[in-house]
Amino acid sequence: MIKQLSAFIGEYKKDVLLSPTFVILEVIMEVLIPYAMAYLIDFGIEPGDMNVIIKLGACLVVAALLSLLFGALAGCYAASGSAGYAKNLRKGLYYKIQDYSFYNIDKFSTGSLITRLTTDITNVQMAFMMIIRLGVRCPVMLVFALIMSFSISARLSLIFLLILPVLAGGLYLIIRKAHPIFESVFRTYDKLNNVVQENLRGIRVVKSFVREDYEKEKFRSISQRIYEQFSKAEKLLAFNGPLMQLCIYSAILLISWFGAVHIVAGNLTTGQLVSLISYAMQVLMSLMMLSLVFVMITISQASAERICEALNETPDITNPAEPQYTVANGDIDFENVGFSYAKDAGKLCLSHIDLHIRSGQTVGVIGGTGSSKSTLVQLIPRFYDVTQGAVKVGGVDVRDYDLQALRQQVAMVLQKNILFSGTVKDNLRWGDAGAGEEEMKEACVMAQADGFVGEFPGGYDYQIEQGGNNVSGGQRQRLCIARALLKKPKILILDDSTSAVDTKTEALIRQAFQSNLAGVTKIIIAQRVSSIMDADQIIVLDHGEINAIGNHQELLANNAIYQEVYYSQTKGGDDHAA
Amino acid sequence: MPPKSMPMSGRRAAYATAPARRFSPVTAKRLFVYFGRYRLLFAVVVFCILLSALAAVAGSLFLQILIDDYITPLLGQAHPNFAPLLKAILIMGGVYLIGIVSVFAYNRLMIIVSQGTLKHIRDDMFSLMQALPLRYFDTHTFGDVMSRYTNDTDALRQMISQSLPNCISSIVSIVAVFCAMLRLSWQLTIVVVAVAFLMIKVSGKITGKSGEYFFRQQNSLGKVNGYIEEMINGQREIKAFCHEDEAKKGFDLVNEELCQDGAKAHRYANILMPIMVNIGNLQYVLIAVVGGALAIHGISGLTLGVIASFLQLSKSFTMPVSQVAQQMNSVVMALAGAERIFQLMDEKPEADQGTVTLVNACLEGGELQETPEHTGLWAWKQTDENGVSRYRQLKGDVRLFNVDFSYDGKKTVLQDVSLFAKPGQKIAFVGATGAGKTTITNLINRFYDVNQGQITYDGIDIQHIRKSDLRHSLGVVLQDVNLFTGTVLDNIRYGRLDASDKECIAAAKTAGADSFITRLPQGYHTVLEGDGSGLSQGQRQLLSIARAAVADPPVLILDEATSSIDTRTEAIVQKGMDALMQGRTVFVIAHRLSTVRNAQAILVLEHGKIIERGEHQELLAQKGKYYQLYTGAFELE
Fold it and tell me: What is the largest distance, in Å, between two alpha-carbon atoms of chain B?
């Protein structure tokens, strides 16, 4: 884990190394300064020698300035190093998540991924900074102080060795107990994030059903759990301070007693006792800081593990070893495809799918709610991998393509349309980053979006809010179609994406497709027969299987489901239908 | 994804950057109000901190006393008596023990104070957030709001549990050492105080800077949180458009900003301590030189011994001063978080001046009476200033009078809309997208308030009805379905919390959802996660209808409730829906002819105005817009 995490230091190696270097220099100053100070008292003040006072004073001023410089530099490098490290780590994790398949994302949940990317990384950042600042300072300080105190009196210094194991043992126990609690704290954080996110996204439902109190209760129980778990963990950590103090104070008392005995015996001067105690304080202070570092590490260890868990997740859809980069044409073949979200051949939600679509054809898909229409088309851009059989595009198995190359040629307008915060142009550029105004306008004209975009204040520069909140459902759908058209794909999939568009407009969109996208394979999932009746083939899906394939006339003549759908929709309307 | 709500408005962008700012002193004050809950406990904590600080001070004085009063007299004695020394050390041991125990005590108690405070802040924040108007949610990045619950409260945690005790005990040491110094030499004390003043000034400057950047850091963190949330939520789009690289670039931008702000904040925070410590060192030299000179030349009666002791003391003085300065760093970081939390809390909640409430009623001798039990009969209760209550039966009569509305005050979305729906009537809204259909329903349940005109419910202006009661009397099936983590049953029960399992299942059957639910792995007890990501859009809509069915309200609003449901399933749903709509006032926005046809009134909207109204046959006969839309194909929007 440490190896994996330290790889993210990257270009901040310089900062991360310089910081402890300056820390060491600073510590050297800090050790020398009290030494000089004691000297100043013993040989300057006590005998009243002004010369010594001034000389040592000058030395001390220089030392203090150096110490200041080193300390400041160490602090600066530690800050930039740890912030940079956190940046790299966050970037690494975020990039990794971009490679996740939906299966991977669902496994973690959005809330959890967000916690990992912010809260957890902040924890690691803080610990990292502590480690590069104190992790070096404390041991160095400790060693120096030990050397000095041993040089004053080796026998008295043995007291430290007595106390060390007590400290270390106590600390170990605390940390071992606290670690698992922190693990569960962060899991609860995930839940908290999820509840808040669901509330934000579903606020209209909450308000419509007047469920504010219910939601508050739900939130409160999670908030309470965080309270309890954090308290439990911190109660353990609360032993840390008193334990340290116990050790410090015992050491001081022991040194005082034995020191007095030594002084009386003439083996030690009072001045030496004073410095010995001040070194003792230094030893113990650095131990105390070290223990704080350990505590911080305990908290961040739980976070670090969560980060690594997400980093080590194997995306279940990856590029093949020798990918194919060109998609020859818009042919699509399903060869005896079976699919299960749970990757379980026993629970297939699509089975025995055999389909052959030629480049440039228009294909309609129709079927009941939950008949796996969306699932079927999501296999084409390889959002999911088939459980059985194979899906081929342009005659090549989709698993043999470079993912980007494949998806670049398959444009999909999803059922749940999402626009992103940014201008209309920004959103359209999702289809083609380099698209010029002309192209955008052209795509919007085809998608029947140009008209209403023109009415927006600012037109194509109109700001869309997160999720496309400030345009109506039908407008959103048409913008999403335009966005897909800009990709100039070989295959265009519309997953029930004109449901909020009125029939007339929809007909215009279809016409535009006919005349402008002749070479593009078009797959249209629809509820309305009118949307697909002109298609070259229509696929009737029923409970994950193909019930029938044919054109409108054939199906109308032979297929019971199709007939039912058709007549249910035309009933009452047929006397007026065009 | 939030449902469509705000057709064409020009409100500010979701990613509005907050300006860098310093904290108002009010923020700190408000935090202390939260501690106020734990007044008693806090007093005990402070007492314990005082005890432990005194023990520490006693410890630092102890050495000198030990040397002067106990060790020196023993020197040169042939048979030194160690008993008094041992006794002194044991007494000191006792003092230390008290110190240790009190440290332990306040550490433990402080957890209750700090975690409790955090919990209260979180809970309050959530409660207040629930009361915010929809406008807030439309204009704020979700991830940024989420960050306030996690990252900003986390910043607070550190301060409360560590800095507070630290500061208090440091101040105690400062006071104690100050007194000791005064006793030794007031002249030198002035020097020390002057330097301490300088230290405070410097640290004030630096923490001011670090505070500013901590605030920026928390804001950037919120922004990163927001970006991540939006991108993970839009993962399907990202994949469909191979937009990974752009999503990475966008992330790098906000991430870099966070890195810069964080580095600057911590840089200022980190250099504080070396500066403080070394100002202390310089002061030491200053006192040594000045004091030495004074003593050697015999001015002011200072002895060299006094100066030696004073120098020791001065070190014990600057130490806690720099400690306090150091703690100010965590304080400003915490305040940065607190500031953002209070920002959210200070948002103006949804206005609700309604006084008319909805109560269970029964008929007694032809008079409506309020009763506590559920009778199936509801009444609006109006109480006048004399405390006399009048009751009016809940029927579901909704009228709009000359309503004008604009989301942003600039672009008019609805203009002079008047309509009436008598109890039990079905009213359909028809028109092109963006015509204002959903907006009308948003006004009826007061997601937004009208700018002009009036909406009445059973003859009562809806502004006078308590919002929660108004919404209780309306059942809504929204265009976009939001499900919550929990079982299918929980999600249906969202409509009415006291509905039994049986009622929920009955509602699911009404909505035609039963057949797919029973095919789920655990049927009605299947846990839905991630906004029901495992369900198809149509299935989600069926659940949403079931939710409204179980709520059993007198007025139903169906906003494209069946848009993603195939017509075969809809035919099944239709029967249930018809039963559901029986006797209710229904507002329906649909593109299915079958739903619109039998409406008592069909309103054709265009650019926020009602341009045609009437029954199906009438409208066809008019050969207007409706006729055009209608004859376009089988269906209309």
Answer: 129
Are the C-beta atoms of residues A142 and A283 closer than 8 Å to each other?
A: yes
Based on the fold, state whether residues A340 and A383 are members of the same structural domain. Answer: yes
Looking up residue A389, the CATH number of its domain turns out to be 3.40.50.300
Last residue of a domain, one of A278, A312, A346: A312
Domain boundary among A455, A488, A521: A488
**Residue B556: closest C-alpha in chain A:** A208
* Closest by Cα among B341, B153, B149, B123 to A220: B123
Q: Is A467 on the interface with B (CB under 8 A)?
A: yes
Same domain, yes or no: A459 and A512: no
**Residue A1, in any domain of the structure:** no
Helix axes A154-201, A270-312, angle to 10 degrees: 30
CB within 8 Å: B278 and A65? yes
SS3 for A194-216 is HHHHHHHHCHHHHHHCCCHHHHH
| Range name among A46-50, A482-486, B343-347 with the lowest pLDDT average | A46-50
Give me the residue from B137, B292, B485 closest to A194, CB to CB: B485
Identity of the residue in B115, B240, B308 whose CB atom sits nearest the CB atom of A227 = B115
Partners of residue B474 on adjacent β-strands: B555
Q: At residue B111, what is the residue type? A: I
Residues A483 and A578 in one domain: no
The Cα B593–Cα B69 span in angstroms is 103
Residues A68, A94: one domain? Answer: yes
3-state secondary structure of A50: helix
> How many domains does chain A divide into?
3
| Of residues B259, B539, B633, nearest to A370 (C-beta) | B539
A385 domain residue, yes or no: yes
| Residue A356 is assigned to a structural domain of this protein | yes
Asked if A333 and A391 count as a contact pair (C-beta separation under 8 A), the reply is: yes
Is the Cβ–Cβ distance between A502 and A436 less than 8 Å? no
Is the per-residue pLDDT at A575 higher than 50? no
Per the CB < 8 Å rule, is B270 touching A79? yes
Residue count (chain A):
578
Instruction: Give the gyration radius of chain B's Cα atoms.
Output: 36
Q: Which of B340, B118, B145 has its CA nearest to residue B229? A: B145
- Cβ neighbors of B306 (< 8 A, separation 6 or more) are B184, B185, B295
Point out the residue among B308, B407, B629 whose CB comes nearest to the CB of A41: B308
* Rounded Cα distance, A285 and B445, in Å: 63
Can you give the residue range of the structural domain that contains A521?
326-409+491-578
Residues 6+ apart with CB under 8 A from B613: B419, B601, B602, B603, B604, B619
Asked if A44's CB is within 8 angstroms of B292's CB, the reply is: yes
Indicate whether A431 and A405 sit together in one domain. no
Same domain, A330 and A348: yes
User: What span, in angstroms and rounded, lies between the C-alpha atoms of A527 and B352?
Assistant: 41
pLDDT in tens, B482-532: 888 889 999 999 888 888 999 999 999 888 888 889 888 889 999 888 777
Report residue B456: phi and psi, to 5°: -120, 150
Residue B291 has pLDDT above 70, yes or no: yes
| pLDDT tens per residue, range B127-166 | 999 989 888 888 888 999 999 999 999 888 877 777 877 8
Domain check: are A76 and A200 in the same one? Answer: yes
Q: Does B99 touch chain A (CB under 8 A)?
A: yes
Interface of A with B in 321-380 (CB under 8 A): 341, 366-374
At residue B378, the 3 state secondary structure works out as strand
* A334 in the same domain as A295: no
Mutate to test the interface with A, among B329, B595, B634 (most CBs of A within 10 A): B634
Give me the half-sphere count of Cα atoms (radius 13 Å) on the Cβ side of residue B575: 9
Choose among B187, B476, B285, B216: nearest CA to A55: B285
User: Is A424 a member of any domain?
Assistant: yes
